[in-house]
Amino acid sequence: MADTLPGPFTRLRGRLTPTRILGVPIVWLFVAFNVLVGLWMLLSSVKSASEIFTSPWRLPHELHWDNYQRAWTQGQFGQAAGNTLVVVAGTALGTLALGAPAAYALSRITTRWNSGFTMFFALGLGVPAQVVMLPLYVVMNDLHLVDSLFGLIVVYIATSLPFTTFFLTGFFGTLPVELEEAAALDGASPFRTFWQVMLPLARGGLVTALILNVIQHWGETVFALIFIQSTGHQTLSLALLGFLQQMQYNGADWGGLFAGVALVVLPVLACYVWLGRRIIEGMTVGSVK
Amino acid sequence: MTAVLDGRSRTRRAARPAPARQASPLAARRRRLFWPLLVPALLVYGVFFAGPSLFTVWLSLNKWAGAGPMSFVGLRNYQRLWSDPTFHSAFGNTLWIIFGVGGLTFLVSFGLTMVLRDMAGRKAARAILFFPNIISSVVLAILWGFLFQQGGLVDSILGATGWHHPPNWLGQGDLFRVIMIGLVWTSTGFYTTILMAAVDQIPPDLYEDCELAGANAFQKFRYVTLPLMWDVVGVCAVLWTISAVKVFEFIYAFAGAAGQMPDTGVWNTALYTYGEAFASGGVPRYGSAAASAVVMVALVGLLVALIRRVMRRDAVQF
Fold first, then answer.
1. Is the same domain home to B165 and B34?
2. How many structural domains is chain B composed of?
3. For residues B76-100, average pLDDT
4. What is the pLDDT of residues A90-140, one digit of tens each?
5. What mean pLDDT is predicted for residues B56-74?
6. Residue B71, SS3 per DSSP
7. Measured between beta carbons, which residues in chain B are less than 8 angstroms from residue A53?
8. Domain residue spans in chain A?
9. Which distant-in-sequence residues (6+ apart) come within 8 Å of A57 by Cβ?
10. N or C: which end of chain A has fewer CB within 10 A?
């Protein structure tokens, strides 16, 4: 992805075009809007409720860390964060454990079934949650997996297999064939070739798939809403919805709400600052060429 | 990224074994591994995703309240949708999201792409614009709703510019419009990123030629950029169609903050399906919920087929 590098001369001349004069400020305005919304969210999370409304742009008089404390205990964000960690970790590892071998088989072992099954997995990308939810609810109910974290993990794994398989099929395809042949000549069994040669080589793709999966499920709402019923099992997005609901009865605790929002956003933000380019490229991969 | 993708298509071609090699003992041994590696994923995907999806089609032809026997009613569920004014407005809202929000998102994304092409600090700008994409829609809905509250930030900014009596943004009349603009806000970054990656592949000397020929920005866009990224635009259109029909959390959390379903006026088909199945107060209507879900998927299928037909043309080599 080479930067377009117009020379100093073209850059100077380009500065006079209307696209520049109008466009650049608009872009930065848009960017500034996003940054301001983020900052405002963080500031509000340490303000008192009245300050949030009366002086939205000013720094807080004193830092109300008790907002976080209330969200963590009364809002049950603490428990929800624990549940979410379990679900997200289980989902990501489970999806890779199933998806990576399938993607390897589909991309590196030629049989007459490959294109059919690749297509079968890819079709899942276009199916909205609402199409699966009714019969899936019945199935899960029969298996006593409704309102259980394990059940939610199973649902998440099944619904993320299309993307993960699609993503990893592409990735395994980029690895050189020669290494597989060399491993086979050295006497490695096909499974050992997969396990000890190809999987380590695909580490970059596997890690990207893992990160994308974690980010996607950190704030997932639709399936959680359907399959989790008790507050003891709720995930972060459900805790947030529940907090909104509580405010109807206990009065508006905006400081606590923003603290809760920050608890949901900050881990993702940290992850994004650390691995941003990888996340962006992973999510948009395959769209260009 | 491009290098990786180019490499993929190259090695994939190379990876196809010649017919002679297929008979080799090595290939045969490897093929024995195919099913053991594939079956676990296939099983989970089939039982918990593909199977239930297909069953929904059958369910849509039956009357069922979630328990007890199902009774076959043919197309009566679809007739019910056809005559239900709530479904009409939900379907209309879904079309508004696909075409209205989609059109505006693409317009803004194209504009941003053109400006970002040779702007200083483009990587940072792109990263910040992309960020809403990885945030939970519930959070985005809460923040967006708070901005538009009466006496909220939007009103105070408008007040500063002299508009002292702004409408109630979250009232019935404007609510869906505010939702649609919020959707544009959250989705623009994603498509801008994809379009930017496509524009980066266009050789810069083509633009230099244009400038020598005295082309203005619009002409450059019309005669260089658009033709050379046509295929990517097609991919984006497909991706948008799929994700537009899936829009659910943003509306649910934005308008239904009290933990109940929002007003039916802002429902789209995704909310309608959910409402019929889980939140309709009395008896859940699984049959018509399933029918509505089938309509959703049929809409995606139809539009994707249409997009592929419209966008089809010979690839431009460059």
1. no
2. 2
3. 95
4. 999 999 999 999 999 999 898 899 999 999 999 999 999 999 999 999 899
5. 86
6. strand
7. 151
8. 8-66, 75-251
9. A40
10. N
Distances (CA, A) of A202 to A89, A208, A249, B8, B92: 20, 10, 52, 13, 45
Contact B41 A20 (CB under 8 A): no
A75-251, what's its fold? MetI-like fold (1.10.3720)
Which residue among A19, A41, A106 sits closest to B114, beta carbon to beta carbon?
A: A19
Interface-testing mutation among A131, A177, A195, with chain B (most B C-beta atoms within 10 A): A131
Report pLDDT digits (tens) over B104-129. Answer: 999 999 989 888 887 888 889 999 99
For position B168, which CATH number holds?
1.10.3720.10
A-facing residues of B in 201-240 (CB < 8 A) are: 201, 204, 207-208, 211, 216-217, 232, 235-236, 239
B91 and B205 share one domain:
yes
Confirm whether B64 is domain-assigned: no
Nearest-CB residue to A219 (from B5, B7, B135): B135
| Residues B300, B242 share a domain | yes
For the cut 70, the answer to whether the pLDDT of residue B315 exceeds it is no
Cβ-nearest to B45 among A14, A124, A133: A124
Work out the end-to-end distance of chain B between its first and last CA atoms, rounded to an integer number of angstroms: 18
Among B55, B125, B204, the residue with its CB nearest the CB of A135 is B55
Given this model, what pLDDT does residue B93 score? 96
Q: What is the CA radius of gyration of chain A?
A: 24
Residue B72 identity (one-letter amino acid):
F
Q: In B12-165, where do the E strands start and end? A: 62-63, 71-72
